[in-house]
Amino acid sequence: MSGEKEKSTVTSAPPSPSPSSVAPSVEFSKGINGLQKVILRESRGSSAEVYLYGGHVTSWKNDHGEELLFLSSKAIFKPPKAIRGGIPICFPQFASHGTLDQHGFARNRFWAVDEDPPPFPTNTLNKAFVDLILKPSEEDMKIWPHSFEYRLRIALGPGGDLMLTSRIRNTNSDGKPFSFTFAYHTYFSVSDISEVRVEGLETLDYLDNLQNKERFTEQGDALTFESEVDKIYLSTPTKIAIIDHEKKRTFVLRKDGLPDAVRC
Ligand SMILES: O=P(O)(O)OC[C@H]1O[C@@H](O)[C@H](O)[C@@H](O)[C@@H]1O
């Protein structure tokens, strides 16, 4: 949940063999309640929508136009309320692990388009992407007294895979270090929850949010959802799969620099 460079890629299988037609594109427009959004489109037809409010991915569609993220029908898109669903950015605090409001303030702030991001080591020429940046306001500094630059790149690859990369820099003038917790709190769209299985978290230790964050060890070999679940798994593998038997769809999540994973 913490670190300087946090990357997460999600793919949804199976990929479609449809032919390549248009070039990747990035379009700026007005979304719900006039809030600014960015639409990423890649050559085979997949797309993603990102609101500057929260730096929040609200939609991710595959090349058949099927929505892959859940967005609550009660999501109101009215600042200062966080958007419910999609991919909220929890920063500088995940959940209630600190003195700030639940999940920190980054999801309730207006991010800017980062016109001049530092270069990336990897080639993104074949991707549709947008770079966003968040810096604290004076008001933010009153509740969390650390100066930072949070750069977020959201990229959609030619196969429709979605990649988020976070680069967080300490800009305190005295160089004083700070620590933070962080999460991409992704809401995947699935059919019936009883048809869903998660692979990659078996036998791991977790903190159970429904039992005062007590630590337990996962026992079963297939992780399903039989009742309410709210668990933070510790030291998870870089690859986790979410298998939706009814939709016959598998989300493959790959991550780098993010040791823990939440299942809820
Ligand atoms: O309702 P929020 O603030 O968007 O948070 C979503 C969920 O985030 C999880 O991390 C919490 O453990 C849940 O209790 C919570 O419901």
TrEMBL record:
Region feature Disordered, mapped onto this chain: 1-25
Residues bound to substrate: R84, Q102, R107
SUPFAM superfamilies reported in the protein's UniProt record: Galactose mutarotase-like (SSF74650)
Stored Pfam families: Aldose_epim (PF01263)
Similarity-based family: Belongs to the glucose-6-phosphate 1-epimerase family.
Name of the protein in question: glucose-6-phosphate 1-epimerase
Record's keyword annotation contains Isomerase: yes
